[in-house]
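Researcher: We're teaching a course module on how sequence relates to structure. For the next exercise, students receive a sequence and then see the predicted structure as tokens, so they can try to spot secondary structure elements on their own. Here is the exercise chain.
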Amino acid sequence: MHAPRPRPRGFALLLVLMMSSIVLVLAAELAYQSNCELLAARNVSDLGQIEYAIDGQFEVVLANLRFDKRQNDVDSENDGWASESIRSRRDGDVGLTTRVFDEQSKFNLTRLVTGSDAEKARSREVLVRLLDLFRDGIAEDKTRGGDLDVADAEDIADRIIRHLKREGATGQVPKPKLVAPWTDTPMLLDELLFVDTKDSRLMSVLLYDVQAKDKVAPGLHRYLTVYGTGKVNLNTAPVAVLKAQFSNLQDRDFAQKIVDRRRQAADETSKPSSGSSSSSTQDQTGNPYTDVNQLTDGSVDGLTAEVLQRNGIDPAVVFDVKSDWFGIRIQGATERTQRDELYVVQRAKDEDQRDSFRYALHQERTDPLLEAEEDAVSSTSG
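Model: And here is the predicted structure for the students to work with:
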């Protein structure tokens, strides 16, 4: 009598376990792929919403710029295009953060390579002072967003000028486009990244906003431009740009006084100077300049024609009270993704002499736009 064969229960159990493991792996892989595809689909949907929201916000800004042009003969930091309501709002699921920069509030790099030798020499001095001042009080390590000293400022200014003149440019470096007429083919401000410096990372640190320990080091993009007439708007210029105009150290305090004058409450009994703006300008918040000659009319304490003269400042050449060039930076963000775009536009007239815009630049940005101390000040001015 034969003994019964043992049933292969161990082998069957092992086979079941192996098959179960394979099924679990396949199920996990399928779930992972499905989740990735779902996230990708949501990102695509979010990006579509963000693009529509940014386009809508851009039109809102253009409408404010167009309206402001019709209402006011001057441009100031208290205009609608610079208001808090423009800076931050929501469009459905998209949060929008917007900054509008008056390009004529900045130092124009074209002044370094145009005009007489005396004008170019003075422009170089202004740039050196601006490089020395724009991060004043920030950490000392310049490679991490710190303050430049005068020697560094001199060196960088000279290197920028050589770059603008295309001196030493190689085939690997995009050549600047500062050629006549420069307004038709301006260089991009980002081309400053190709300025040959001792530290290859330095221009990137200087050009864009950087977090320096507990402070925000504002980037040069806030103070330099390649657009506009070359004149600095008294009503929108940052203190650093105004300070840089004064060659005498003891006179630089007038920069803050100029800003204080434009932000003070307007005197109801004051009248616009001859040939200046219409009555609508008087209704603006604050007290914007309506004529560059108001610098020396006594409203800026201690500032006289003699002070301007000893600093080499001709108000009619250096300053203005209006602008038609604006940089518009818009960031749209959802919980999952974000997009950041920069536009540069010029207010102009079309063929039928209707208010229109000339589009000089549109690009996606990846550099941070941080909330600097000057942003908090300007958002509460007036």
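Model: If you want an answer key for the exercise: The longest helix spans residues 9-71. The chain has ten helices and eleven strands.
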